[in-house]
Amino acid sequence: MDPRAFRLNAAPERPGGEYVLYWAQANRRVEANHALLFAAEAANRLRLPLVYYEFLTCDYPQANDRLHTFILEGVPETARRLRQAGVGHVFHLRRRISEPLDSLHWMAGKAALVVTDDYPAFVARRHNETIPSTLDVACIAVDSSCVVPTRLFEKREWAAYSIRPKIHRLLPQYLKPLPALHVARRWEAPPPPFHTEVSENRVGALVAECQIDHSVAPSISFRGGRLAAEKRLRHFLEHNLRRYASERNEPAAHATSNLSPYLHFGHISALEIALAAREYAAEHKLIADEFLEELIVRRELAFNFTLHTPHYNSLRALPEWARQTLREHAADRRSPCYSREDFERARTHDALWNATQKELLLRGKIHGYYRMYWGKKVIEWSRTAQDALETMIYLHDRYALDGRDPNTYANILWLFGLHDRPWSERPVFGKVRYMSLEGMRRKTNVDAYIREIDHLERTGKDPFCT
DNA sequence: ATCGGCTCGCGCAA
DNA sequence: TGCGCGAAGCCGAT
To answer: Using a CB cutoff of 8 Å and minimum separation of 24, what contacts does A119-123 make?
Structure first.
């Protein structure tokens, strides 16, 4: 059995099914998609056409214009590439909460087999835990997110050092290009009545029709979709890979890939990025090790963490030393102490912190290095650790294009000690690692970053993050 | 500017 | 059983 494939129910394949269904949840792309390829292989074996089905509902937590726009921007290119490959494309935009139609059961009712994404967080995790038992057809989840199939690691890893050698041992086997998508039988039937055709110039109008929170504007910096992802990757390889190791922790230098939004929605895969980085590095005599470490080892440590942790978004998921030290400092005085609204509106005494929060509000992500500072300060200035956690998850759910991801939860809990070690004791944090404004000033150009974010705020344009 | 201590527990060698 | 060392640091001594 394919180590990426995981059976979600005990129902058999449906004899007389009209197609094999791929339900895209977390990996909304045609290229380098293990789950789609798995479904295509099954379709060819059963001599059936293949249908790629995706939906966008309006009732997931914090559904808003920013997230909807990014997802919808990806749909037209997906549709084009599927049409070219002879694969059916069905997109259901559920505009109103009251809309009763259950398009998934409608689609699954005619399918010989349902294949979906194995994804350990947010709504996809809940879907995969609850929906397959309500289907009367075999349902299989396939991991297309990780380079090394995440279920090969059967227990929760302690830290990066414990999973790193295991991943490196398996990379020769898995860091390889995938075959092209090929279906023997083309999909010819008309789309079902609930299908919505999306064109680039209709995205805004469709978003406006949805019963979602219209108060969070789309990102001023990131446009969704495959073409935007490919452009970002190209730009990263040509301009940033060579300086990634030395400048990745200097936010004003813009040496990072900015691919996390596309990775989160699956518009591009870690496998494709890793292969492209390795190839570019070989051609140009560069070292891509530091980038691949973050892209593969740390990202897949986060997947390992969420997969093996029932409460992956809770302080209960922390190692015992961290839980205990936070308990011991629960009554420490917080000064200053801010509310969720203070944080959300970037109203603190700290100009760097406010700039990081404004970056989240405007761009929809925070530079990885400053995101640590952002989070450490939310802990320092919140009434309790639990409040801090809830504030950070809320802000990521609502504003971050790379939120709701295994990386998000692992990164947020890292701020409380996950995958880290104890350090010398101090107020509020106990033995959890502390970060200071002085440290940021010492190591990064804080003023250049503040000026940059100020420019974004004044102009609503982002000439820096290209 | 640079260095060591802080402090826990996993993973592995012995 | 003992030892080395870890996802991004801080602080005080030199």
So the answer is: A119/A25, A119/A26, A119/A27, A119/A145, A120/A150, A120/A303, A120/A306, A120/A307, A120/A312, A120/A406, A121/A306, A121/A312, A121/A404, A121/A405, A121/A406, A121/A408, A121/A409, A122/A60, A122/A404, A122/A405, A123/A25, A123/A60, A123/A404
Percent of chain A past pLDDT 70, that is, above it, reads 100
Q: Which residue's C-alpha is at the least distance from the C1' of B11? A: A162
Rounded distance in angstroms from the CA atom of residue A443 to the C1' atom of nucleotide C14? 22
Is A302 (CB) below 7 Å from strand C?
yes
Express each pLDDT in A31-68 by its tens digit.
Answer: 999 999 999 999 999 999 999 999 999 999 999 999 99
**A299: nt with nearest C1' to CA:** C7
* Nucleotide with C1' nearest the A158 CA: B10
Percent pLDDT > 90 in chain A is 97
Own/partner long-range contacts of A101-104 (Cβ < 8 Å, ≥24 apart): A101/A194, A103/A53, A103/A55, A103/A192, A103/A194, A104/A23, A104/A53, A104/A55, A104/A131
Residue A161 CB in 7 A reach of strand C = yes
Nucleotides of B under 7 A from a protein CB: 5-12
CA of residue A247 to C1' of nucleotide B13, angstroms: 37
> pLDDT tens-digit profile of A67-95?
999 999 999 999 999 999 999 999 999 99
Confidence of residue A404 (pLDDT cuts 50, 70, 90): very high
